[in-house]
Amino acid sequence: MRAIIRLTWVVPALVLVGVFVYLPLVQNFGFSTLEWDIYSGSREYVGLDNYRKLLGDPVFWSSFGNNLLYAAISVAVQVFGALVLAALIESVRSERWRRGLRVVYFIPSAISLTVAGLLFYFLYEPNLGVLNHALEAAGLGHLAQAWLGQEDTAMLAVIAMSQWQGFGYSTLLFAVAIQRIPSEIYGAAAIDGTGPVRRFFSVTLPLVREMTGLMTMVTISGAFQVFNEVMVMTGGGPDNSTQVLGTWLYRSGFVRNDFGYAAAIATVLFVITLAVALAQLWVTSRRRVEW
Amino acid sequence: MVSRLSFAGALARVFMWAFLLALVVVVVYPLLWMVLNGFKTNAELFGDPFALPVDWSFANYAKAWNRGVSGYLTTSVLVTVTSTVATVFVSAWAAYGLTRVDIPLNKVFTGLILGGLMLAPTVALVPLVKMFQSMGLYNSFWALLILYTAFRIPFTTFLIRAYMIDLPREVDEAAEMDGAGRWTAFWRIILPMCKPIITSVVLLQILFTWNEYLFAMVFTSGSGVQTLPVGLTSLMSKHGTEFPVVFAGMVIAAVPVVLLFLFGQRYIVKGLADGIGK
Asked: Are B124 and A21 an interchain contact pair (Cβ–Cβ within 8 Å)?
């Protein structure tokens, strides 16, 4: 009896997470086996038909490809680029400058993706955007174009915005990881006469390996959950060229009313994000064994 | 030899500073451009995008405010405040129960609550819409409050729990000696001791709620319940030709969180760092 009373501490959290996080996840599997029109209310069990449809849907595959591209570029910029940047910042002697740089780089991560997305929508805009005007001023007018209006540049333009918005976040976390490296280790390397580049590869890189692993997982997982920036900047267009799994799920379910199909896309997202999360868990648990 | 090395070193430092400062420009210029455009007229905006505003009037801000931003802002503040209070209390209770109360199946409950961290909100979208429609909460303030709370409990509990584990056992024993019940011990002793981590999770929850888009966009459509991120896109589509008004709206949405970050960065950084790798 007393044990049950003690349970009241965790019951609110368990109920909220259970009903609104876990239950929908389970329901989603069921939904993905239905042919379901939300407006007419008709439902019919169709087995794995939605998954078969998925395999034959070119937009599903191009969305998946866009998520992969998103992940690859984000890992390059927001993991490896950010790590190098953090090392550069931490090599600055003045503490005030180090702090200032970290703060300034982080500001885009504090504002919402909606604001950042709208801002870049305007920057890319051919008439009033500064990007094309700057290119012309630099004598590169032939490069000026409707960045978000063409199939071959739109996705990269969205991804570029996302790098601008997110690099300061990972740089900040890497800077924290570098600060946690005991200064004696750097001192020893300095006595050995190791140069800054060698020091980065032989001291910094190995010692922030765990953070690098975690950031890689977080970044990949984030790249597969992309939604906001695409919706705000292109809505998936032109001609579905910037569609990602999240926006294709939304469009399938809430615009084309194909809830079963949207649920099938959600299952794919579930498998990918869970796999990445388990890899992340593995990275963390391995550290505990090592230490 | 030595002088050549130091020359190379100096050159490397010059390049490094050039790179770091160029990056500052890349970050700051678009933001500055956004703020300046909020003061321009449409003709100025299309005339020369690099120019400074001719007269610094707040007319666009007033227009943005009257065309819905006041309502979006009110909703954002309400959802942010309520969901932050709800998330932090529910998570702190859970963290207290999991770390300092002898409850059955502790490991299972810990795993269940923290396991929610691994699940992407997008995956639950379709069933959640169905669920909220049948509860009659679709397109309501409650939908956002519930979702922002439920989906942030795992992360928040994770951080508070990690902090509470490190608090010494003697604290609880001292409380017991004083004859304080668990409820009193939680409110009077443990919770105040967790102030640093509570500050971190409060700030992170505010940043999250203020900026969240997926749930806000799917679960609300009426202007009475839209938050700023969704409201801005409505402002854009409704008054699409009057861009300076949209810029003013964007600035109104961005300023509070930038200030929050600048003043609370110590706690935000600590929370983010612990959240990713503790």
From this structure: yes
Give the sign of the dihedral formed by CA A18, CA A21, CA A23, CA A26: negative
> Is the pLDDT score of A288 beyond 60?
no
Amino acid at B91: S
Enclosing H/E stretch for A36? strand A34-36
Start-to-end Cα distance in chain B:
46
Tokens of A14: 């368990």
Q: Residue B33: give the domain boundaries.
A: 2-37
Q: Helices A259-290 and A209-224 sit at what angle, rounded to 10 degrees?
A: 180
Residue pLDDT, tens place only, A238-276: 999 999 999 999 999 999 888 999 999 999 999 999 999
Structure confidence by residue, pLDDT tens digits, B94-144: 999 999 888 888 999 999 999 998 899 999 999 999 999 999 999 999 999
Q: Is residue B17 part of a domain?
A: yes
A112 touches B: beta carbon within 8 Å: yes
Structural domains in chain A? 65-290 (1.10.3720.10)
Average pLDDT on B68-95 reads 96
- Asked if A215 reaches chain B (Cβ–Cβ under 8 Å), the answer is yes
CATH code at position B216: 1.10.3720.10
User: In chain A, what residues touch B90 (CB-CB under 8 Å)?
Assistant: 12-13, 16
CB B201 within 8 A of CB B160: yes
pLDDT of A290 above 50? no
* Interchain CB contact of B117 with A (< 8 Å): yes
**ipTM score assigned to the predicted complex:** 0.91
Same domain, residue pair B22 and B92: no
Could you give the CA distance from residue A289 to residue B278 in angstroms, rounded to a whole number?
14
**Residue B116 within any structural domain of the chain:** yes
